[in-house]
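Fold it.
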Amino acid sequence: MSSKLIIPSVLYSGYGSMEQSVSEILEREQVKKVLVFTDKGIVGAGLIHLLLDVLEAKQVSYEVFDDLKPEPSYEEVERIRTQAGRCEGDLIVAFGGGSVMDAAKLCSLLKDSDYSVKDLLANPGLGRKQIKLAAIPTTCGTGSEATGNAIVAVPEEAVKKGIVNHEMIPDYVILDSQVIENLPKGIVAATGVDALAHAVECYTSKKANPLSDTYALAGAKLIFENIREAYQNPNNRKAKEAMLLGAYYGGVAITGSGTTAVHGLSYPLGGKYHIPHGISNAILFGHVMRMNKECCIKQLAELCDGIHPAISMADREEKAEYVIREIEDIIRFTNIPTDLGSFGVKKEDLDFLVDAGSRQTRLLVNNRKELSLEDIRSVYLKVL
């Protein structure tokens, strides 16, 4: 069986790489005007000037679109698309976390097109790239800069849904750890665990292949080894660089493999209760992997060999258990909530969760263990 990965054309990495990389992109693409997608938090923190200062030095005009809420609905993305459609531009630059990058990726397909975000929800294959895109992640975890996936909330169904089209894969990616050196610890934790989930889920997915496994294993190793340090010691530049690269590798793995039930069952939590994506994944992560263990014990053991070779002579059960315990320990260490109570989710919501979670077939089909309704109910019950 053949394997396939589709990845961004050009990747820049390294502390302080912003000026050189953006300058090269502007020259290579002969850019006259940039459409900058970001959010008000990034603008308020002054981070956006790491990008805008380069544009101004190069005398390239720009328009900033920062009115984007976290975890946006498809209507909110459509509104931003309409605003961007009124502006001429040669390049979109996404400077933000997963929500910003997902919206920018969608707009790279939507600008000046005759289809809408809702049309892409119904038929993602409609989309064709209309304008080139550079992605600059400002968290250490979504991996969105590497994928052709965009997640939007669908309020009328109280869930999130993914739009998948490889035309959305950014043309350029800049991983500059200067951007995340002052990232709040809570965001390091939530986005870092999200990135770890990408790597572990892709490695244990039914669609895993030798190419995706290479990136998933490399990403998992970087994150397992550095997330505690990046969380505890914000000034550790090397740990932050490792987290950025690990998150990117996890995103690349998604293009060849795909996430599984952790992400699938988290979508109703974000869609209805607006629980941040990384936190909803973290709450479910260990429980889903324990549920899956019997069906992916080989893959979990291989992950253990990659991240903790000291126990290479142990049996598969011990190795698989080590990986799951590490996941659970990281979530405790980084003080991520471990249940849904603080988010207003109640026992009487269980039937909705089971029904909505079971409908996430795009991801559940990747899960090596076929989850019954009772399996799904059992997972949700553990976190209520």
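The beta strands are 10-13, 33-37, 61-65, 91-96, 132-137, 149-154, 159-164, 172-175.
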